[in-house]
Amino acid sequence: MIAIIDYRAGNLTSVARALDQLGYENKITDDPDTILSAERMIFPGVGAAKATMENLQKRSLDNVLCKFYESGKPMLGICIGIQILFEHSEEEDTDCLGLLHGSVKKYPKHNGLKVPQIGWNEVAQVRPHKVFEDVPNPAHFYFVNSYYPVPDMMDAVIGKTTYGIEFCSAIAYKNIVATQFHLEKSGRVGLKMLDNFLKWQVDEGRP
User: Fold this and answer.
1) Which of 91, 96, 129, 184 is catalytic?
2) What's the rounded Cα separation, in Å, for the pair 27 and 171?
């Protein structure tokens, strides 16, 4: 069973529908025992870093996410789910989970650049990983974000995107895969990448 973390955010049902379409049993849940017993975990959603961390902490889900990471089982972060994995976000000066070394920054003002970024943008694969298997390079995915991750661990970056600046849009480290873009909203290539994650064995393509 695949656990989809329920922290009262939007977009969770879109992820569940994508998993249903791919034929994987899944459950949207905030129950710690259910999450920790799952084969894999997905932390999706949209929203602000501070509110997300507060919702996680109210339900002790911050500790559950850390325990799941320590278990070594595959976990996937999507959109706010990649940002919360880092140590700190500039969004309301928020301390995050710290499972990945680095921070999250707001897009700089740049020649009329619209923030948030909303829509399709290109992701270039910069390091091979099983989650990109049979995904075109580059490929277009759907983004909704005002902030972007800045990893300290550059050897873990597997995808980059340009929106005013070049930034990390996909990362893989140990049993974590995370994307700034929405796999569940990215059509055929998004579903393929999601399916690849659900088949991925952690020792494959591990930095």
Assistant:
1) 184
2) 25
DSSP assignment of 155-185: GGEEEEEEESEEEEEEEEETTEEEESSBGGG
Q: How far apart are CA 160 and CA 171, in angstroms?
A: 9
Per annotation, catalytic residue among 79, 91, 129, 168: 79
- Alpha-carbon gap, residue 135 to 7, rounded angstroms: 30
How many angstroms separate the CA atoms of 28 and 42, rounded?
9
Distance, CA of 170 to CA of 157 (rounded, Å): 6
Encode pLDDT of 123-148 as tens digits: 999 999 999 999 999 999 999 999 99
From the list 176, 179, 185, 183, the residue with the least C-alpha distance to 167 is 179
Query: Which of 96, 129, 168, 182 is labelled catalytic?
Result: 182
Joined tokens for residue 69:
């990471």
CB 151 within 8 A of CB 162: no
Tokens of 87: 């140590």
Which pTM value belongs to this model? 0.95
86: enclosing H helix or E strand: none
Question: Which residue(s) pair with 80 in the sheet?
Answer: none
Write down the residue that tokens 């591990």 correspond to.
206
Beta carbons within 10 angstroms of residue 188's beta carbon: 10
Assess whether 166 carries a catalytic annotation. Answer: no
Whose tokens are 């991750």? That residue is 149
Please name the helix (run of DSSP H) or strand (run of DSSP E) that holds residue 154, with its range, or none.
Answer: none
Are 79 and 181 in contact, with CB atoms under 8 Å apart?
Answer: yes
